[in-house]
C-alpha cells in the first residue's frame, strides 16, 4: 500500500515578467522549509534563465564569506536537522513527470513542491505544467499592462484549462504586490471591482513595496530577506506584510 501523503504542487505564475514570480517562490519556500517545519522542494523550469538555481549558488558563496550568516546557517541546520531544500533544473514540458519521480524516490515526501515556470504560455509544455498545479498564485500591480496581461492569463486558466476538467488546479489566486503605502490610487478599487465581476479570486493580503524584493542580501549584511538557504528576517517580513500573506497562503492551500 502506498502510504505517502499528498504533495502539493504550487506555482507563482504570470504571463508578465518582472512581477516577482521567482522572488515569491524563494520567500515562501524558505519560510515553509526553514522556519515552519515543512519539507519543501523547488523545480526550476524557467529555461534558459534558471534564475533560482543561480541564486542558490550565489547564496552559498555569500554565506561562506559572511561570518554572521555562516553562524546563523550553522545554528539553523543544527536545530532543524535537515538539509537545504533542493532546487532541481528541468524543462517545463516534462517537469510534472520529473516531480512525481522525485516524490517516489524521496525518503521523506515533500509537503510542497514549488515550480518556477516560464512566463509565457507559448513556452513548450507550459500549459500542461500549469494544469498540473494544485494552487496558482499570481502577483499583480496597479499597472494597465500588467493587469491586462494577468486577466487574460487568469481567464485562460479558468475558462479553458479548468473547465476542460483535465486539470489538478484547485485555486487560482491573484494578490496585490508592490503596493505603495503612501498611495491611495483609485486603480486598486477599479481593478478590484473588475476582478470581482470576472469571478476571479483576489487575496486580502497586500504586499507593500520594498527594495528588499529587488535586491538580494549583500556580502556584509546581517539580516536576510531573499535567500534560498535562510528564511526571511521576521522584522522585514512585517514591514512589507509578507507575514500576513504567508498566513493567508497557508489557509488557502490547507497545509
From TrEMBL:
UniProt-listed InterPro entries: DNA_Partitioning_ATPase, P-loop_NTPase, YlxH/NBP35
Pfam family, one: ParA
Recorded superkingdom: Bacteria
ATP-binding listed as a keyword: yes
Alphabetically ordered keywords of this record: ATP-binding, Nucleotide-binding
Protein name (record): P-loop NTPase
Amino acid at each position: 500500500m502506498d502510504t505517502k501523503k499528498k504533495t502539493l504542487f504550487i506555482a507563482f505564475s504570470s504571463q508578465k515578467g518582472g512581477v516577482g514570480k521567482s522572488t515569491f517562490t524563494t520567500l515562501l519556500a524558505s519560510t515553509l522549509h526553514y522556519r515552519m517545519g515543512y519539507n519543501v522542494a523547488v523545480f526550476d523550469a524557467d529555461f534558459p534563465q534558471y534564475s533560482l538555481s543561480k541564486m542558490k549558488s550565489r547564496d552559498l558563496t555569500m554565506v561562506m564569506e559572511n561570518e554572521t550568516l555562516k553562524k546563523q546557517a550553522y545554528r539553523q541546520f543544527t536545530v532543524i536537522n535537515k538539509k537545504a531544500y533542493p532546487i532541481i533544473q528541468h524543462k517545463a514540458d516534462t517537469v510534472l513527470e520529473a516531480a512525481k519521480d522525485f516524490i517516489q524516490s524521496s525518503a521523506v515526501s515533500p509537503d510542497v513542491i514549488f515550480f518556477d515556470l516560464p512566463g509565457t504560455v507559448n513556452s513548450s509544455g507550459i500549459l500542461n505544467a500549469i494544469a498540473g498545479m494544485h494552487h496558482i498564485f499570481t502577483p499583480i500591480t496597479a499597472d494597465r499592462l500588467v493587469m491586462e496581461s494577468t486577466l487574460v492569463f487568469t481567464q485562460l486558466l479558468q475558462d479553458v484549462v479548468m473547465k476542460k476538467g483535465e486539470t489538478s488546479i484547485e485555486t487560482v489566486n491573484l494578490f496585490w504586490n508592490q503596493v505603495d503605502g503612501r498611495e491611495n490610487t483609485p486603480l486598486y478599487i477599479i481593478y478590484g471591482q473588475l476582478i470581482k465581476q470576472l469571478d476571479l479570486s483576489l487575496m486580502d493580503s497586500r504586499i507593500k513595496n520594498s527594495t528588499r524584493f529587488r535586491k538580494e542580501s549583500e556580502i556584509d549584511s546581517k539580516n536576510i530577506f531573499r535567500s534560498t538557504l535562510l528564511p526571511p528576517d521576521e522584522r522585514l517580513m512585517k514591514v512589507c506584510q509578507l507575514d500576513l500573506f504567508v498566513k493567508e497562503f497557508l489557509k488557502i492551500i490547507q497545509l
